[in-house]
Amino acid sequence: MRRYLALRLLNVIPVVLIITFLVFLFTYLIPGDPANVILGPHAGAEQLAAVRLRMGLDNPFPERYLIWLGQVLQGNLGTSYLNNQTVDSLVASALPVTLELSFLSLIVAMLIAVPAGIIAAIRKGSFVDRLVTGTGFLGISIPAFMLAIILSYIFALNLRWLPATGYIRLTDDPIGNLRSLILPAVTLGTVLSTQFMRYLRAGVLDVMHEDYVTTARAKGVRERTVVFRHIVRNALIPFITVLGLQLGYLLSGAVIIEQVFALPGMGRLALSSLASRDYEVVTGVVLIMAVIFVLINLAVDLLYSLLDPRIRLSGGARAR
After folding, report:
1. Nearest Cα to 37, choosing from 268, 279, 267?
2. pTM, two decimal places
3. What residues have CB less than 8 Å from 139, skipping those under 6 apart?
4. φ, ψ of residue 56 in degrees (nearest 5)
5. 146 Cβ contact partners less than 8 Å away, ≥ 6 residues apart
6. How many Cβ atoms are within 10 Å of 65's Cβ, its own excluded?
7. Phi/psi at 319 (nearest 5 deg)?
């Protein structure tokens, strides 16, 4: 297991390096001149040239990339062109908001999807199954921003139970923090749960026809034990892979929700920086989110190999 873990970690290194190159390349190709962002639209040609020279903007792309990569490896993501703040400090302020929103959304999604998906599979063809399936298709069809607007209209504007926008940090007011995140988390969690329900339902249906389930029932094992120990337990193993992938997409997919509810998270920071052409911040935010996505997938892969007894690690590789 240790050898397998070491090999997986080594495989992550070239992936992260490729990500850094692509992130820097895409930012480099975005139209606009950072010197204009720093000096403003009325700057003279000499001033712009001086800034480009000082920042190394006239250097060839490979040289600029290597300089930037060296700074990143030292923990320096650069400095914002607009407010002269370090990208590290901006990310440190925005990342907890996105992580908290993603965590709460995942909890909401699991509370909805796990019981609904299991019950729908066990009672296949029943009214509950048709209801869950129909709700799943409906949830996929409704955009997240539309659901956010509907929930805000009902619970914030009409009932006035929850705030429509804004964010209160956990350290300042825990109750206020939870209230400010309920609507965004329910919005994201509800949309995500519709996908989870479909995957989990399909997984349970596949496991129900396995030989060991039939054998357990033939031995007289209680149905409740068969469902939870043999069916659900084994159906959740491939579901973990889907869960990890969706969590990665959830971190990046919270951009629209953060905009709708005015949450100062990573998505909103990236959009505002892109609109103002603050490319250093955009590069840092995209890089951090991409690395988190890779690490989540690594963690899921390792957890999957630990939970599934059918997987054997031989020579650092898995045999399925």
Report:
1. 279
2. 0.82
3. 190, 191, 193, 194, 195
4. 75, 25
5. none
6. 16
7. -110, 120
